[in-house]
């Protein structure tokens, strides 16, 4: 039986096992870091089906679902924070509608000038310090942290604490149970105090609007949901995007022809961002789902109680869904990749992530056209032990 996540030999290349599974074993039994077993799906249509089908729900210990991490707490997918956010039915739709107002195309357009100005300042700092530089530490991490902190009305000077709290929530094998419990208690205390402060003195930020706002029926979010929403946005709003910025730039610099094509045609920035999201071979764990009733997937009958892991990155390399799936085509369109999931649980902040990625790429192309990797591609090191994938650092020069 395969161990999951499946290790890859290179930081930017997919494990060879993905193609074999898609072709010959689309529903594979795997062993998770916890030692529990799950079913892994890797084909595009199967992953899209599982993510979109309401019969597949979030796994919880209460259901007897497979544990993801070796630690006792559920981590990102099954903890007090995630359980406080409604996942199904009308409550879930209400929560998404209230938050969705903050992630519209109009909102993103309004945020873009601030993102561009911050990216410019961060690149100025990198230039002042000189090269080689770590693009992830200098730009990839601080930019999305600044954006999400601004949205939530929290000081980005606390970003190192946010990063640690996020990592413990995203744990697979890196942290002990004691470290996780302490960090999550601190995180909960911090965000609870922040919500209380915002309730006393509302500002112009997202949390203040959620506290004071109501839905179409006059309903308000509970205190627990407000706190959990703040935590969830802080984690999702910087960790995944920070990693994706580093991976995107590394992918584009790994083959100089890609970077040169963008320098010659800046109109490709949007499609290049989408292709980087599709082509990403190091996105992390994927998305687990729990099956409350018997169902057939890819000719395999899955019994009630099965935990299914959707590997969106493997699905995004499916030749039946994408012509030349193993080639990075910066002009690919349409590009219906699954990097942000599918269905009612698709990533709420995907417009924000896309805007940040586009801004970073536009500013880098303008300010640092001679940018290149400062180490061979094979020397790039992957983030280990967390639910999210990424590169530990992205050494660059110009």
Automatic annotation (TrEMBL):
Top-level taxon: Bacteria
Coiled coil regions, renumbered to chain: none
Keyword Zinc-finger: no
Cofactor: heme
The keyword Kinase is annotated on this UniProt entry: no
Record keywords, A-Z: Heme, Iron, Metal-binding, Monooxygenase, Oxidoreductase
Family statement drawn from the similarity comment of this UniProt entry: Belongs to the cytochrome P450 family.
Name the record gives this protein: Cytochrome P450
Organism listed in the record: Streptosporangium amethystogenes subsp. fukuiense
């Amino acid at each position: 039986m395969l161990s999951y996540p499946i290790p890859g030999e290179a930081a930017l290349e997919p494990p060879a096992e993905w193609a074999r599974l898609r072709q010959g074993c689309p529903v594979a039994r795997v062993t998770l870091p916890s030692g529990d077993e799950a079913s892994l799906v890797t084909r595009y249509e199967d992953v899209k089906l599982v993510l979109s089908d309401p019969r597949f729900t979030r796994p919880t210990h209460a259901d007897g679902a497979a544990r993801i991490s070796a630690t006792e707490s559920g981590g990102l997918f099954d903890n007090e924070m995630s359980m406080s956010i409604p996942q199904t039915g009308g409550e879930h739709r209400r929560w998404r509608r209230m938050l969705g107002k903050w992630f519209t195309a109009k909102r993103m357009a309004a945020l873009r000038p601030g993102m561009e100005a911050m990216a410019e300042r961060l690149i100025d700092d990198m230039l002042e310090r000189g090269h080689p530089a770590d693009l992830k530490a200098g730009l990839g991490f601080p930019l999305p942290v600044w954006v999400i902190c601004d949205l939530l009305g929290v000081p980005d000077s606390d970003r190192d604490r946010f990063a640690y709290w996020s990592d413990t929530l995203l744990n697979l094998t890196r942290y002990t149970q004691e470290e996780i419990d302490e960090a999550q208690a601190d995180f909960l205390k911090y965000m609870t105090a922040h919500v209380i402060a915002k309730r006393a003195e509302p500002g112009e930020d997202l949390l203040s609007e959620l506290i004071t706002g109501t839905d179409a029926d006059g309903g308000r979010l509970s205190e627990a949901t407000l706190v959990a929403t703040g935590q969830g946005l802080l984690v999702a709003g910087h960790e995944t995007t920070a990693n994706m910025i580093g991976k995107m730039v590394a992918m584009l610099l790994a083959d100089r022809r890609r970077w040169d094509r963008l320098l010659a045609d800046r109109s490709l920035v949007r499609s290049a961002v989408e292709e980087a999201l599709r082509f990403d071979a190091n996105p992390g764990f994927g998305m687990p789902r729990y099956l409350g009733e018997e169902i057939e997937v890819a000719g395999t009958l899955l019994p009630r109680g099965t935990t299914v892991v959707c590997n969106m990155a493997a699905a995004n390399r499916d030749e039946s869904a994408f012509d030349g799936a193993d080639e990075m085509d910066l002009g690919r369109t349409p590009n219906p990749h699954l990097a942000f999931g599918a269905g009612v649980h698709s990533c709420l902040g995907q417009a924000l992530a896309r805007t940040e990625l586009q801004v970073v790429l536009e500013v880098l192309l303008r300010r640092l056209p001679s940018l290149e990797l400062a180490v061979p591609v094979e020397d790039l090191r992957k983030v280990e032990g967390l639910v999210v994938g990424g590169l530990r650092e992205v050494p660059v020069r110009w």
